[in-house]
């Protein structure tokens, strides 16, 4: 029985690299969500009295980090599918806009952490 070569098998290294990148994005998303959730939770477990603005910032850190995490998972999935198609069509172009958007999102989260540390 003669096995026929698929389009995916021609570019197996590229597809495997694409999968590794996808899984790295997923790990990053889970880490961002976990750090935000646990830092907000830690704030509310460690405070004995109402601290005003620091409570709001801690809440925002949790919400923003979970939002960034979900958006990262969505972006990673869509990006994986687009790259998979473009690898097979030999029309792949490395995107740079995604890095700018996610860098800005993480920068925003870092600013929230900084504000939290200032007001605690």
Question: Summed up, what is this model?
Answer:
The chain has 120 residues and is an all-alpha fold. Helices cover 82% and strands 0% of the residues. InterPro entries: DUF202 (IPR003807), IM_YidH-like (IPR052053).
Can you walk me through this structure?
The chain is mainly α and 120 residues long. The chain has one domain. The protein contains four helices and no strands. Helix 2 packs antiparallel against helix 3 and helix 3 runs antiparallel to helix 4. The model has no long low-confidence stretch (mean pLDDT 88).
- β-strand percent reads under 5%
Largest sheet: none
Mean pLDDT: 88
Query: What's the structural domain tally?
Result: 1
Q: Which regions have little confidence, pLDDT < 50, spanning 5+ residues?
A: none
- How many distinct helices? 4
Cα distance, first to last residue?
A: 71 Å
How big is the Rg?
20 Å
User: Helical proportion?
Assistant: over 70%
What's the total number of strands?
Answer: 0
Strand-and-helix sequence, N→C? HHHH
Structural class: mainly alpha
What shape does the CA trace take? elongated
